[in-house]
Design a protein that fits this description.
321 residues; alpha/beta; TIM Barrel; 8-stranded parallel beta barrel; 10 helices
């Protein structure tokens, strides 16, 4: 076997080759600031004002990153996330800015309410068997309104992340009714209640005021449930499925790949922060670990990889090629 690992033949026999086209860059757009704001727990990442979006998106596209995933931080929050579906909302304005400045960029928008609610949960609050919590059916209409407003602004793909039962069907109906039959849905179909989301809550300002999200995000112990969730979303009309987080859930990714739809994997904020912190200490080589982690995510079955390392990785891929 070692004959196949010699220096000159090894690259030619690589079973997986990471491409710039695999990468999606998450961006945090904040309408409360005038200058980019560093995210302390995610070194090298920022919240950007809407006015900076054309330059940021243009820089990513020039580096070879052809897709972005947008998250918004609004000026105002309330119990029903009314700022999330405004025609001139933060994400809506960001989408239009990218459409005007980088027309060939693929624009994906996160469809959720946690950044827009004053309680920090992902939809409308109601009474559940466990006390106050996310009310499923009243929240479906809200997700449909948010998704339709993103599509109207020019989003190519809407990505519901709140793990509501029936959310894909509700959003598909809302999009079709509004005339956006060609807008894709990338469902966070296997989103786990992970301890790796902590830095994201600083980045997106989406911490919750009571309880947690375990009532709607999945138990990390459950693989069969992840497959069932993804099969249901596929049956409801999802165009792309997603596994989040990525690195600790490669078995889930491989299983969901068998459903037959394209699959995205989200290398989340905690994964990014751990690599950055260890690299800053000199314990690992950042570039090597990033490229290995992304290659392994692709090997497990990801067609798209959402990662905060997207721009850096695109540059490293260019150098290697």
């Amino acid at each position: 076997m070692r004959r196949l690992r010699q220096r000159r033949i090894r690259p030619l026999l690589a079973e997986q080759v990471l491409s710039k086209r695999d990468l999606v860059a998450p961006l945090f757009i904040d309408e409360t600031i005038l200058e980019p704001l560093p995210i302390v727990s995610m070194p090298g990442q920022f919240r950007y004002p809407v006015e900076y979006v054309p330059d940021v998106a243009g820089g990513l596209f020039a580096a070879g990153v052809q897709a972005v995933l947008l998250f918004g931080i609004p000026c105002t929050k309330d119990a029903v996330a009314s700022a999330a579906y405004k025609a001139d909302g933060v994400v809506q304005r960001a989408v239009m800015a990218i459409r005007d400045s980088v027309p060939d960029m693929l624009v994906i928008t996160d469809v959720c309410a946690c950044e827009y609610t004053d309680h920090g949960h992902c939809g409308i609050i109601g009474e559940t068997r466990d006390g106050p919590g996310l009310a499923n059916d009243p929240s479906l209409e809200l997700m449909g309104r948010i998704a339709a407003s993103h599509a109207e602004s020019g989003a190519d793909i809407v990505a519901p992340s709140c793990m509501l039962d029936g959310q894909v069907a509700a959003i598909r109906e809302a999009l079709d009714t509004a005339g956006f039959q060609e807008t894709l849905i990338m469902s966070y179909s296997a989103k786990f209640s992970s301890a790796l989301f902590g830095p994201f809550r600083e980045a997106a300002g989406s911490g919750y005021t009571f309880g947690d999200r375990s009532g709607y995000q999945m138990n990390p112990a459950n693989a069969r449930e992840a497959v069932r969730e993804s099969e249901l979303d596929a049956a409801e009309g999802a165009d792309i499925l997603m596994v989040k987080p990525a690195g600790l859930y490669l078995d889930i990714l491989a299983a969901i790949k068998e459903i037959g739809l394209p699959v995205a994997a989200y290398q989340v904020s905690g994964e990014y922060a751990q690599i950055k912190a260890a690299a800053e200490q000199g314990w690992i080589r950042e570039r090597d670990v990033v490229m290995e982690s992304l290659t392994c995510i692709k090997r497990a079955g990801a067609d798209l990889i959402i990662t905060y390392f997207a721009k850096d990785a695109a540059g490293w891929i260019h150098e290697e090629q």
